[in-house]
Amino acid sequence: MQVVLQGVNKLFTKSNNQTLQVLRDVDLEIGAGEFISLLGPSGCGKSTLLNMVAGLEFPSNGKVLVNGKQVKGPGRDRIVVFQESGLFPWMSVLENVMYGLLLRKLSKKEAEEKAMEGLRMVHLGRFAKSYPHELSGGMKQRVAIARALVLDPEILLMDEPFAALDEQTRMVLHTELQEIWQRTGKTIIFITHNIREAVMLSQRIVLLGTRPGCIKKVYQVQASFPRDPGDALLAHLEQKILHSLEEEMAKVLKEEMGDEYNFKKGHIHRDPLYNLGSDI
Ligand SMILES: Nc1ncnc2c1ncn2[C@@H]1O[C@H](COP(=O)(O)OP(=O)(O)OP(=O)(O)O)[C@@H](O)[C@H]1O
User: Which residues form the ABC transporter domain (predicted)?
Assistant: First the structure.
C-alpha cells in the first residue's frame, strides 16, 4: 500500500488550553494509483488527515507512512492542491506553472516545455501568456492542477479543489480530472463536501464521522470510467451515503445549535447536490 495510516489520533491544544481530539484511531490503506475521496461533516478532521499525509501536520499517536516510510515532512512525492488556486498575480499563466520547475533547477527551456505540456493537459495551452486576473475561477484551478502535475508527484492531495466553482464548471473539471487521473496513474486523495462529486470521481469513498473524526464507513464505487452522471447505481449510492451522513450532520448541528436545533430526517435532501458544509 502506498499510503498507510495506522492508529492515527490527533489532538490540538486550543487557545484556551483545552485539548481538542480531532481524529481517533484512524486506520486506512490507500493503494498506488487509487482515487479516494474523504467525505464528512465540517470539522470532522478531513483536512487534518490530508495535511498529515502531506507532512504539514503530525499524528499525536499512530503513524502515517508513504511508500513504507514514516512521513516526517513535505516531500516531492506529494503535492497539495487547495480550494484557492494561489497563483501569483504578477506572473503569466506560463510563468506560474514554470515557477516550481525553475526552483528544481530545470533550465528555462526545459521548464517552458514541461509547463506548456502541463497547460495542454488541462486544455489551457492558448492561455499561456494570460495573467490570472484574465481567467475564470475554473481556469485558475486548472492552472493550479497543471502547476502541480508538472512537478510529477506520485500523490496528488486535493483539498476541496472545486468547492468555489459553479456546477457547470465543476462538471467540466470532473471530466478533465478523470482523464488526467487515468492518463497519469497518480494516486489522488480528494476532500469534498459534495457527495455527488465523490461518487462521480472516486473508486472508494471514506466517510468520516464526528467528533472526534473516525472512519464511519468505506464505500466502493464499482462503476467504470468515464462515469455517467445519470447512472442509477451511482444515484442509489449517493442516497445511501446521504443517509449515513444525516446522523453525523445531526450530531454536529446539535452540538453547534444546542436546544435550538430540531433535526428532521430528510432535512438535507433540500440541497440537490448534497453539499454538506456547516451552513446547512
Ligand atoms: N492547528 C490547529 N489548532 C487547533 N485546532 C485546529 C487546528 N487545525 C484544525 N483544528 C480544528 O480541528 C477540527 C478539524 O479541522 P479540519 O480542518 O481538519 O476539519 P475538516 O473536516 O476539514 O473541516 P471542513 O470540512 O470545515 O474544512 C476543527 O474543529 C478545527 O477547528
Answer: 3-237
- Give the span between the Cα atoms of 228 and 44, in whole angstroms: 30
Question: What is the value of ipTM here, to two decimals?
Answer: 0.97
| Peptide bond preceding 41 in cis form (omega within 30 of 0) | no
pLDDT tens column, 113-150: 999 999 999 999 999 999 999 999 999 999 999 999 99
Ligand 1 centre from 185 Cα, in Å?
A: 30
Q: What is the DSSP string of 231-262?
A: -HHHHHHHHHHHHHHHHHHHHHHHHHHGGG--
- Measuring CA to CA, how many Å separate 16 from each of 19, 43, 144? 9, 18, 37
**Domain coordinates of the chain in residue numbers?**
3-77+154-270, 88-152
Fold of 3-77+154-270: Rossmann fold (3.40.50)
